[in-house]
Specification:
- The longest helix is centred in the N-terminal third of the chain and has 19 residues, at 29-47.
- The chain is α/β, with parallel strands linked by helices.
- The chain is elongated.
- 40% of the residues lie in helices and 15% in strands.
- Helix 3 (62-76) packs parallel to helix 4 (94-101), helix 10 (257-268) crosses helix 19 and helix 19 (438-451) packs across helix 20.
- The chain folds into 2 domains: 3-216, 3-Layer(aba) Sandwich (Rossmann fold), CATH 3.40.50; 224-485, UDP-N-acetylmuramoyl-L-alanine:D-glutamate ligase (3-Layer(aba) Sandwich), CATH 3.40.1190.20.
- The protein has helices at 12-24, 29-47, 62-76, 94-101, 136-147, 186-189, 193-196, 209-215, 228-231, 257-268, 283-287, 301-307, 326-335, 344-348, 355-363, 374-380, 382-385, 392-403, 438-451, 456-474, 480-485, and strands at residues 53-58, 81-85, 107-109, 119-124, 152-155, 177-181, 199-203, 219-221, 245-249, 273-278, 294-297, 313-318, 339-342, 367-370, 406-409, 415-417, 423-425.
- It binds ligand LZDS7PUF and potassium ion.
- Ligand LZDS7PUF binds next to helix 1, helix 2 and helix 3.
Length: 491
């Protein structure tokens, strides 16, 4: 993979534009297909040197073309190869037709494929061109291969995985390895497509990086490259007041733990000072559990207004364990012109009337980050959630545009989107992160970044990445407490 394209995500539509631009610039498109198919055959031999037979399943487009090239290369190398085609191979066009006619092997109809022990399937049925549910014939073949436990190497994408959305169109192969070309597609990262890809190899077939970068949108993988320049400005040796002061709001006496998790995570993630703002009746419960985190009585809006006169308290987390209702709404609206992570109950409190919140976010000049998981997203953005055709990325982008906030759409494939459309997809979170209190820790890390002066998008993306790394370090038996202890330094 080209280093400059390491974090770039390209949608199938953008990839088509890139292919067209490559052809227009005089690059031989058949040479690209040859390069793609040869890379697949190399991966097959590398991963399955003991295969008794390579079974190449070829579709009606250029993905199928890559398959014919791979089949020819494997046969040239002396491997046993069988080719099965979906549809009429004589109807292939362009480069795919050329690849088929250069392939010396007999082509059988797809339905004739019967899995055998020792088979390795090379899935070249559909790639970036998949636009609708797989034909029934392809679905039946997938079922047979899966019943036969045949390992599958996918060309570009496992057939059935939608490259734009990661959704499964009717059925899909579950590959052990996927070879894609030039750059990752959203479908490689978004669930459930991600888990159908197996290991992912991004192979450079020779399209100049400039042609790719110029046509790729504002979508990236979430790595330190997306926000590192903002993080490196934070010197850990800086005086505590310069590392910001984070305020975290506690719920009532029976639900104080979530806010304390956010607060301790905020401290661990580098906020200079953290104060837990507690209602009167929860002061005792909070006081008995806090050491480095400070405690302040904030019962109603008057207390909050008085506290907000201290401009050094420059970022807030509102929501974890806070309770849904008017108090959350009033507090959030007062905090909108500062830097605010609105999480959990904080967001749900605006379910019935979000207009004022979104207007404030647009006009106040503050930094608002909202962190919905799927259920909260559907409550706050029902009309966007109901748009079945949109990908998770497109939903997060639409929500960020509508709310004028940075939206962190959480899940195993968390998407962070800014109102500008800029978005990153995260891929470093282990499944064990789906544990009680994990979201509270994430909100605290975000709050710490905001307190340290990071812009909202970068603060959120960096927090999601650090949270994922903390999850990896904490390992399988983690609790939210051990997760806090494992938050890594900012790179
Ligand atoms: N630069 C590169 O990355 C290169 C990629 N290559 C490979 O090319 C494919 C993309 O090829 P494309 O021909 O655009 O698309 P597919 O092969 O995935 O699909 C073929 C056509 O099938 C039709 N289609 C779509 N969905 C279905 C369906 N469910 N059932 C039946 N038919 C379907 C569709 O045509 P329609 O007109 O019928 O809509 C597709 O166009 C990419 O994945 C790479 O593997 C090049 O080899 C090298 C350069
Ligand atoms: K495929």
């Amino acid at each position: 993979m080209l280093e400059v394209l390491r974090d770039v995500l390209v949608t199938p539509t953008e990839m088509t534009a890139i292919d067209n631009a490559a052809a227009a610039s005089g690059i031989d498109s058949f040479a690209l297909m040859r390069s793609a198919g040869t890379a697949v055959s190399a991966a097959a031999l590398r991963l399955f040197p003991e295969a008794l037979r390579f079974v190449v399943l070829c579709g009606p487009g250029n993905n199928g073309g890559d398959g014919y090239v791979a089949a020819s290369a494997l046969a040239d190398g002396g491997a046993a190869v069988a080719v099965f085609a979906l549809g009429n191979p004589e109807a292939l066009k362009g480069d795919a037709a050329r690849a088929k006619s250069a392939c010396p092997l007999t082509v059988q109809p797809l339905e004739a494929y019967e899995p055998k022990l020792g088979d390795v399937v090379i899935d070249a049925l559909f790639g970036a061109g998949l636009t609708r549910d797989l034909p029934a014939e392809a679905q039946r073949t997938i079922a047979r291969a899966s019943e036969g436990h045949v390992p599958v190497i996918a060309v570009d994408l496992p057939s059935g995985v939608d490259g734009r959305t990661g959704e499964i169109r009717g059925a899909s192969f579950a590959a052990v390895h996927t070879v894609t070309f030039m750059a990752r597609k959203p479908g490689h990262l978004l669930m459930p497509g991600r888990v159908r890809c197996g290991t992912l190899e991004v192979f450079d077939i020779g399209i100049p990086a400039r042609l790719v970068s110029e046509r790729a949108g504002d979508l990236r993988l979430n790595t330190p490259a997306a926000w590192g320049s903002h993080a490196s400005a934070l010197d850990p040796a800086t005086h505590k007041y310069r590392r910001g002061h984070l305020g975290v709001f506690s719920g009532g006496p029976r639900s104080t733990g979530a806010a304390r998790l956010s607060a301790t995570a905020g401290l661990a993630a580098g906020a200079g000072l953290v104060t837990l703002a507690s209602p009167t009746e929860a002061l005792a419960a909070n006081a008995s559990h806090l050491t480095a985190v400070m405690l302040r009585e904030i019962h109603g809006t008057e207390d909050l207004a008085a506290w907000l006169k201290d401009k050094r308290v420059n970022a807030f987390v509102l929501g974890p364990g806070f309770g849904v209702g008017k108090k959350a709404r009033d507090f959030a609206l007062m905090l909108c012109d500062r830097a605010l992570v609105l999480d959990a109950d904080g967001m749900t409190s605006f379910e019935k009337d979000r207009t004022e919140l979104f207007e404030r976010a647009a006009s106040s000049g503050g930094r608002l980050v909202m962190t919905p998981h799927e259920g909260e997203f559907a409550r706050l953005f029902p009309e966007i959630a109901a748009e079945a055709a949109l990908s998770k990325i497109e939903k997060a982008q639409a929500a960020a545009r509508l709310s004028h906030a940075v939206v962190v759409y959480k899940g195993p494939d968390t998407v962070v989107a800014a109102p500008s459309g800029h978005a990153v997809v995260n891929d470093n979170a282990p499944p064990s992160l789906a544990t009680a209190g994990s979201g509270d820790v994430l909100a605290g890390i975000m709050g710490a970044h905001l307190a340290q002066g990071m812009p909202a998008f970068e603060a959120a993306a960096a927090a999601v990445w650090r949270h994922g790394e903390a999850g990896r370090r904490a390992g399988r038996g983690m609790t939210a407490e051990t997760l806090v202890e494992c938050i890594p330094p900012l790179p």
